[in-house]
Amino acid sequence: MIPWEYQITIHELPELKAEGQKRTIECDQAGLCFVHDVFQGGLQWLEDLFQEKGKEGWELIQSGYHHRQLFCIWKRRKETVEKG
């Protein structure tokens, strides 16, 4: 059995840069999220987050969006010490 470790993080979405712009993120029960009305360059923070967590070995397994916050559940293989 593969030992996993998990991490839960909450990320505040950055403010929209231009007045009147709207962002809609919809997530279904399976954890799939869809972003609507994305403004140019507005998701660089999300790509940066995924790159940073990926370098640390974390894999996003589920996310949700609520009131300008992105809730993420991550997992990675737990390092085990060999006996003997």
H and E order: EEEHEE
Terminal-residue CA separation: 19 Å
What's the rounded overall pLDDT mean?
82
User: Can you tell me the overall shape?
Assistant: elongated
Uncertain segments of ≥5 residues (pLDDT<50)? none
The biggest sheet amounts to:
3 strands, antiparallel
Number of discrete helical segments: 1
Category by helix and strand content: mainly beta
Outline the structure in words.
The structure is a single chain. This protein has one helix at 44-55, and strands at residues 4-12, 24-27, 33-36, 59-66, 69-77. It has one helix and five strands. Strand 4 (59-66) and strand 5 (69-77) form a beta hairpin. The strands form two sheets. The protein has a three-stranded antiparallel sheet, with helices on one face. A two-stranded antiparallel sheet has the order 2-3.
Short description:
This protein has 84 residues and is mainly beta. The chain contains 1 helix and 5 strands; from the N terminus they run E-E-E-H-E-E.
SSE inventory with pairings:
Layout: E1 4-12, E2 24-27, E3 33-36, H1 44-55, E4 59-66, E5 69-77
Antiparallel strand pairs: 1-5, 2-3, 4-5
Give a quick set of tags describing it.
3-stranded antiparallel β-sheet; 84 residues; mainly beta; 40% strand
